Amino acid sequence: MQPDPPPRLHIPRISRRDLLLGGSGAALGLSATLALPRGAAGAPSVGALSILDFGAKSGGSIDNTAAFAAAIRAATARRTGVHVPTGSWRVREVRLLPGLAYIEGPGLLVGTSATPEAVVTVGGRGSSRPVENLRISVNIDCGRIARRGIFAVGLRNSAIEGCQVRNLVHDGGDAIRLNFPHSYGNRISGNSVLFPAGAGGAAGLFGIHIVGETASPLGGIERRGRPVALAVTTRDNQVLGNRVEGGTHGIAFFGADGFVCADNILVGQSARNIIASPSARNGSIRNNQCLEAGSSGIHLANGCSDIAIEHNVIRSDRVSRRLDDDGAIQAYTYCTGIRIAHNRISGDWRYGIYLAFVRDVAVVANEIDATGFTGAGIAIESGWAPAPPTGARFSRGRPLDFAIDIDTGAIRLEGNRIEGGPVSIVLTQLGERALEGVSIEGGGISGSPRHYVYAFEQRIGRLNGIQLRDLATPGESGKLSFPRGQAHFSVLKGVPSF
To answer: Least crowded by CB within 10 Å, which of 53, 131, 165, 436?
Structure first.
């Protein structure tokens, strides 16, 4: 007897009006804990020094860099902070010094043509002293000139919170960037980043960028496919409750260790809402709203390890940026120890969840509405080819320009619900590397896909050890497609016949 088919999924559509107006979590059908950031505001803290007392003038073409510098020096000497009152304050650069307690206020810092790198800079330029216990809460207009809004190096146990950053268009730029070395224990929360429409090119335009250093451009592997350790990392940083609209990437973790990315709203990135690559590790990506990305909602690649992706809502109906790199959640090229659980996925993706060249991955209790997909609800591959062979009907189809030294396997799919689409689950063995030890258990398939599970094996004997148990389906036979039939399975129980 087959398990009863699951009920139809309901993943609510989110109107752009609701999204831009910041509708409540209940109204959006999403987490009620999320709130849109409102930027730096409010009365000055007790003891704050005002930039007005150091000669700052609002508006016009006046350069207030010297007034900000004087206020920061005085506040640092007194172990207090600086207040930026309402107004528009043109500056070349605001450099924050070790010992400053905070910079805050509703005023708008405006970059100029003389801005060297970022409107607000912390550390860097050969400074060996870390900046600790600092709070940054200001509003920034990059003026379509500055490369970055906030650029922090060697920042520790500090907070960047309630900031607004806008008008950043410089390709390769970042609205907020936390950089190695020795940037540890920081919280980036409640900030808002708005990129102009169409901003960002090949080098990328990042909302929030946490950057470590790796020993290889591929991160955890080198070109022969062998592991490479991290050289320097950023560590134990949290990115919480921010909103980023536009650009190429919403939030990015490069060589980051021990990170948390939670309760953020990412909208309309041309490439990826959230990316961890290369060599991000020991991270949690949870309870985010990833909306209208052009390539992927959440993307892991190149040596990422021990990362949990849980309770996120991922939806996109925009045209894919690259058809060979289009998936709501992706993990490939030497990712290990990944958990993908309790996510809600819908839209017009090619794949809901896509895995390749990975091991030790759990995909648990995700809800995937694949009605608008062009590929599979869940796809797993052991290789890539620019022109996949006949029969590899749902393969990604892209070149592999480096060696992979692992077999794809030790993957557990459990309790996932997939509705509609051309095919629910795809297993593709390509090249010399094996696809082995995939367990599919529980959950269910609804709608009328052409295949419940579709498999392709390019090298005979390289697709093995498949376990398939108790998959609830509409019960039609002939929708399991495996080239060698039951020979691929170590367990086959409670599923429709071939």
So the answer is: 53
Question: How far is 246 from 312, CA to CA, in rounded Å?
Answer: 19
Backbone angle region of 405, left / alpha / beta, with phi > 0 → left and psi within -120 to 50 → alpha: alpha
For residue 483, give Cα distances in angstroms to 28, 486, 496. 44, 9, 16
- Other Cβ atoms closer than 10 A to 7: 10
447: amino acid identity, one letter: G
Q: 465, 486 in Cβ contact below 8 A?
A: no
Place of tokens 């796809």: 379
By residue count, the chain amounts to 498
What is the DSSP annotation of 291-337? ES-SSEEEEEESS-EEEEEES-EEEE-SPPS-GGG-EEEEEEEEEEE
Check: CB of residue 439 under 8 Å from CB of residue 453: no
The token pair at 231 is 């050289």
- Dist. CA 279–CA 255, nearest whole Å: 5
Distance CA(408)–CA(384), nearest Å, equals 12
- Ranked by mean pLDDT, the top range of 103-107, 212-216, 477-481, 488-492 is 103-107
- Cβ 390 vs Cβ 419: under 8 Å: no
**What pTM did the predictor assign?**
0.90
Tell which residue, 436, 429, 331, 326, has the closest CA to residue 383: 429
**DSSP reduced 3-state for 218:** coil
Residue 221: pLDDT band with limits 50, 70, 90: low
CA distance 179 to 23: 33
From the list 349, 372, 345, the residue with the least C-alpha distance to 289 is: 345
Quick one: CA dihedral 23, 29, 30, 33, positive or negative?
A: positive
Q: Give residue 21's pLDDT band: very low, low, confident or very high (50, 70, 90).
A: very low
CA distance between the termini of the chain: 15
Q: Which pLDDT does position 217 carry in this prediction?
A: 54
pLDDT digits (tens, 9 = 90+) for 307-338: 999 999 999 987 666 666 789 999 998 899 99
For residue 161, give the H/E element and its range. strand 159-161
Q: Report which residue type is found at 60.
A: G
SS3 265: strand
Tokens of 475: 């019960």
Q: Which of 171, 127, 179 is nearest to 150 (CA)?
A: 179
The token pair that represents 262 in the structure block: 């939670």
How many Cβ atoms are within 10 Å of 129's Cβ, its own excluded? 10
pLDDT at 43: 74
Q: Residue 189 and residue 100: Cα distance in Å, rounded?
A: 20
Task: Please give the Cα distance from 85 to 431 (Å, whole number).
Answer: 62
**Could you give the CA distance from residue 293 to residue 413 in angstroms, rounded to a whole number?**
25
- Per-residue confidence band for 227, with pLDDT thresholds at 50, 70 and 90: low
pLDDT of the residue at 186? 97
